[in-house]
Amino acid sequence: MFSKLTDSFRQQGTTLWCIAALVVVAAAVAAPWMNPYYTRVMTMGLMCGYLAASWNLIGGYAGQMSLGHALFFAIGSYSVALLARMPDVPLVAAFPLAILVSVGLAWIIATICFRYALRGIYFAVGTLLLAEIARILVINSDVLGRSQGLQIPGMQGALNFSFGSDLPFFYIFLGISIALALGSLALERCKLGYDLVALREQEEGAQALGVDVAAIKRLAFVLSAALTCVGGVIYAGLVRYVEPGYDLSLSITLFMVMGAVLGGRGTALGPFLGGVVMVIVQETLITVGSAFGTTSVSALAQMIYGLFFVVILLVFPRGIVGQLLHRRVDRKATRLPASATPEAS
């Protein structure tokens, strides 16, 4: 495992990872002395980066555009809300419950979709419809709070996510983000990672080479769903409230997709960078709009928000990290003939 990580470090460039490590250490050290507002912004940025990296397993490495990941996020958040009604059960029990439900549901969805070779726009629309069906069911369910959602009461103890501030949640998201980044890095150097890239680039070719395409895509989808629901559990513990208007909305899925696309799909660091940048830009524009206090300025802020991402994607069509890695590979390729010439002579 360690050799695979070091190989990936060399392949992607140690400079990029060293910068990321310095930023992480600086944020971890400075967090206890920050204003609570900035701690919340950093926590939400890490959450969006983590969710984008979770989606990246199926949407980036496997190349399957899922638009229904809000379903798994909501499974995590609503698991916390339902367990809060059972006073003798700690809320951390939502982790195994949500993972079990998400894995089972994702396995069923993936088996049906990939068994009949559903991919591309058809897979995207299919997963989107499933999330929308779930949202309608929740809105019409008294047990799940209908459209008003469910309040999660304050409960004592760390096992019930009662920390008194956002700081522990920041460190929780930071820890699982580091673990997921290193896991993604190791994935790129193992057989599963090679199979995922092969089917993403040329599915028919990968199948001709003996790759079990349906099984590989199913595994990626299940892993992605399990990681996404973990983010939903922690988010519910942070905000103490769940509602279908956010937890099951298309916007939460688009945050995952845009974070991965902005940072670089199919890269280990890209989705984290994209998710953090999205939250920082959004919060900055909201703050500016609130300072003026007019609807027109808020609408203008949303236009600037959209324009910002259009410009970024025009400058970095492969995403920020993806484009940097691509340029690094191009520079290496241009130097190869020159270095090979003396040996040839």
Q: Which characteristics define this entry?
A:
single chain, branched-chain amino acid transmembrane transporter activity, two-stranded antiparallel sheet, 15 helices, mainly alpha, ABC transporter involved in vitamin B12 uptake, BtuC, globular, transmembrane, cell membrane, LivM-like, 345 residues
Could you explain the architecture of this structure?
There is one protein chain. The chain is globular. Helix 4 packs antiparallel against helix 5 and helix 8 packs across helix 10. The protein is mainly α and 345 residues long. It has helices spanning 2-12, 14-30, 36-61, 70-83, 94-115, 121-139, 167-187, 191-201, 203-208, 213-239, 244-247, 250-263, 270-292, 295-315, 320-344, and strands at 150-151, 241-242. The chain has a two-stranded antiparallel sheet.
Query: Any idea what the CATH architecture of the largest domain is?
Result: Orthogonal Bundle
Which topology of the largest domain does CATH recognise? Answer: ABC transporter involved in vitamin B12 uptake, BtuC
Q: What is the helix/strand order?
A: HHHHHHEHHHHEHHHHH
Overall 3D geometry? globular
What is the mean pLDDT?
86
Largest beta-sheet details? 2 strands, antiparallel
Give unreliable regions as ranges.
Answer: 338-345
Strand order of the largest sheet: 1-2
Distance between the termini: 40 Å
| Computed Rg | 21 Å
Q: How would you briefly describe this protein structure?
A:
Pfam families: BPD_transp_2 (PF02653). With 345 residues, this protein is mainly alpha-helical.
